[in-house]
Request: fold
Amino acid sequence: MRRKACPSTDCSAASAPQWSLTAGQLHRIPEASRALIDAHMPAVRYCSYCQAIYSMDPAVIFGWLDNNVAGAGWRPKLADS
Ligand SMILES: [Zn+2]
Reply:
């Protein structure tokens, strides 16, 4: 399922495939962030290039899962970044 490009300003891939977040991915995200993400389902997407997890409507980035630069695991986006 292809979606419009990732909203992350750090993402350099203009047309990387954007996937729906899977239950397995959601399960790996800590409870505090997961509750917020779950509230935005099913509009939550996962960028195949930068691993950003975000909502399409409204556009908000929650964080990154297994980012190539930051490393494995969950890295939440800071509220003021
Ligand atoms: Zn991206």
